C-alpha cells in the first residue's frame, strides 16, 4: 500500500549507518574530554597533586573521560558488526577492559576530590552530586564484577548468562545516564561555588559559565546518543542461535 511504502521510505531516510554514527560519537566524546580539560586549565588554574584546587581539577577530567566517554565506548563494543561473527572472547576482553579502564579513572577522580576536600578541611559527601556520583561508581563496580563472573569466567553456566544478560544491559544504560547526571550536576555545582566573590557572578553568564554549560549539554547529548544506539534494534548483536545471526554468519562467510 502507499502508506506502507511511505513508512518504509521514511524509515530508510532515518536509518544511519553504524560506523559513521560511531565516528561522530567518537568526535563528540573527544570534544567533551578536550573541553573539560580546557575549562580546568584555562579558567580553574591547571593541575597538580598538592591538595589545592588544582588537585580538584583532576576530578572532572577523569570523571568525564572515564565514567562517560570510555564507559560509553565500552557499552557500544557489541554494536560493532564485526563482533557478530567469529569468537566472542576477544570482544568480551575489549568490552571488559574498556570498562575496567573507565572504572580505574573514576576511582582516581574520586581520590582527587577527597584529597582536595581533606587538605582544605571541606566536608565530604554532603551534596546530592556527591551522593549520586559515589552511588554511580559503586553500582559500576558491582556491574563490572558480576559481569566478569558471569561472562568471562569459564565455569559460569549458560542458563545463568542468559538470565543475567538483560539485567546487565539494563544496568549498563542506567549507569551511563547516572554518570551523565552526576557530571552535569557537578559542573553546575562547581560554577555556583566558583563564580561569586572576586569573579563575574554566575547569573551574569560570564564566558566560563557559557563554556561549562555548553560542555554539560555535549555530555548530555553524548549519553543520550549512546543509550539510543544501545536501544536501536537493527544495531543489536543477534543471538547466536537466531536466524538473523545465522544470516550474518553466512553473509560474512562464517
UniProtKB/TrEMBL annotation:
<dbReference type="GO" id="GO:0031902">
    <property type="term" value="C:late endosome membrane"/>
</dbReference>
<keyword id="KW-0967">Endosome</keyword>
<keyword id="KW-1133">Transmembrane helix</keyword>
<feature type="transmembrane region" description="Helical">
    <location>
        <begin position="134"/>
        <end position="155"/>
    </location>
</feature>
<feature type="transmembrane region" description="Helical">
    <location>
        <begin position="207"/>
        <end position="231"/>
    </location>
</feature>
<dbReference type="GO" id="GO:0140571">
    <property type="term" value="F:transmembrane ascorbate ferrireductase activity"/>
</dbReference>
<feature type="transmembrane region" description="Helical">
    <location>
        <begin position="12"/>
        <end position="38"/>
    </location>
</feature>
<keyword id="KW-0812">Transmembrane</keyword>
<dbReference type="GO" id="GO:0046872">
    <property type="term" value="F:metal ion binding"/>
</dbReference>
<keyword id="KW-0349">Heme</keyword>
<dbReference type="InterPro" id="IPR006593">
    <property type="entry name" value="Cyt_b561/ferric_Rdtase_TM"/>
</dbReference>
<feature type="transmembrane region" description="Helical">
    <location>
        <begin position="93"/>
        <end position="114"/>
    </location>
</feature>
<keyword id="KW-0249">Electron transport</keyword>
<feature type="domain" description="Cytochrome b561">
    <location>
        <begin position="24"/>
        <end position="231"/>
    </location>
</feature>
<dbReference type="Pfam" id="PF03188">
    <property type="entry name" value="Cytochrom_B561"/>
</dbReference>
<feature type="region of interest" description="Disordered">
    <location>
        <begin position="235"/>
        <end position="254"/>
    </location>
</feature>
<dbReference type="GO" id="GO:0005765">
    <property type="term" value="C:lysosomal membrane"/>
</dbReference>
<keyword id="KW-0408">Iron</keyword>
<comment type="function">
    <text>Transmembrane reductase that uses ascorbate as an electron donor in the cytoplasm and transfers electrons across membranes to reduce iron cations Fe(3+) into Fe(2+) in the lumen of the late endosome and lysosome. Reduced iron can then be extruded from the late endosome and lysosome to the cytoplasm by divalent metal-specific transporters. It is therefore most probably involved in endosomal and lysosomal cellular iron homeostasis.</text>
</comment>
<keyword id="KW-0325">Glycoprotein</keyword>
<dbReference type="InterPro" id="IPR043205">
    <property type="entry name" value="CYB561/CYBRD1-like"/>
</dbReference>
<feature type="transmembrane region" description="Helical">
    <location>
        <begin position="167"/>
        <end position="187"/>
    </location>
</feature>
<keyword id="KW-0479">Metal-binding</keyword>
<protein>
    <recommendedName>
        <fullName>Lysosomal membrane ascorbate-dependent ferrireductase CYB561A3</fullName>
        <ecNumber>7.2.1.3</ecNumber>
    </recommendedName>
</protein>
<keyword id="KW-0472">Membrane</keyword>
<comment type="subunit">
    <text>Homodimer.</text>
</comment>
<keyword id="KW-0813">Transport</keyword>
<keyword id="KW-0560">Oxidoreductase</keyword>
<keyword id="KW-1278">Translocase</keyword>
<keyword id="KW-0458">Lysosome</keyword>
<feature type="transmembrane region" description="Helical">
    <location>
        <begin position="58"/>
        <end position="81"/>
    </location>
</feature>
Amino acid at each position: 500500500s502507499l502508506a506502507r511504502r511511505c513508512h518504509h521510505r521514511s524509515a530508510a531516510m532515518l536509518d544511519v549507518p553504524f560506523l559513521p554514527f560511531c565516528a561522530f560519537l567518537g568526535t563528540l566524546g573527544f570534544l567533551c574530554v578536550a573541553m573539560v580539560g580546557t575549562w580546568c586549565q584555562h579558567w580553574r588554574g591547571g593541575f597538580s597533586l598538592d591538595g589545592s584546587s588544582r588537585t580538584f581539577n583532576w576530578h572532572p577530567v577523569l570523571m568525564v573521560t572515564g565514567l562517560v566517554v570510555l564507559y560509553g565506548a565500552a557499552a557500544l563494543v557489541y554494536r560493532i558488526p564485526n563482533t557478530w561473527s567469529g569468537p566472542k572472547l576477544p570482544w568480551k576482553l575489549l568490552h571488559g577492559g574498556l570498562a575496567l579502564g573507565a572504572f580505574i579513572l573514576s576511582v582516581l577522580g574520586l581520590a582527587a576530590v577527597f584529597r582536595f576536600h581533606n587538605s582544605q578541611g571541606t566536608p565530604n559527601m554532603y551534596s546530592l552530586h556527591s551522593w549520586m556520583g559515589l552511588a554511580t561508581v559503586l553500582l559500576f563496580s558491582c556491574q563490572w564484577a558480576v559481569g566478569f563472573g558471569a561472562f568471562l569466567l569459564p565455569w559460569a553456566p549458560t542458563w545463568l548468562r542468559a538470565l543475567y544478560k538483560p539485567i546487565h544491559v539494563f544496568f549498563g544504560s542506567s549507569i551511563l545516564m547516572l554518570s551523565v547526571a552526576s557530571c552535569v550536576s557537578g559542573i553546575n555545582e562547581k560554577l555556583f561555588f566558583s563564580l561569586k566573590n572576586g569573579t563575574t557572578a554566575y547569573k551574569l553568564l560570564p564566558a566560563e559559565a557559557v563554556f561549562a554549560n555548553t560542555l554539560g549539554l555535549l555530555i548530555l547529548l553524548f549519553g543520550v546518543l549512546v543509550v539510543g544506539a544501545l536501544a536501536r534494534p537493527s544495531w543489536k548483536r543477534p543471538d547466536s542461535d537466531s536466524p538473523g545471526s545465522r544470516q550474518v554468519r553466512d553473509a560474512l562467510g562464517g
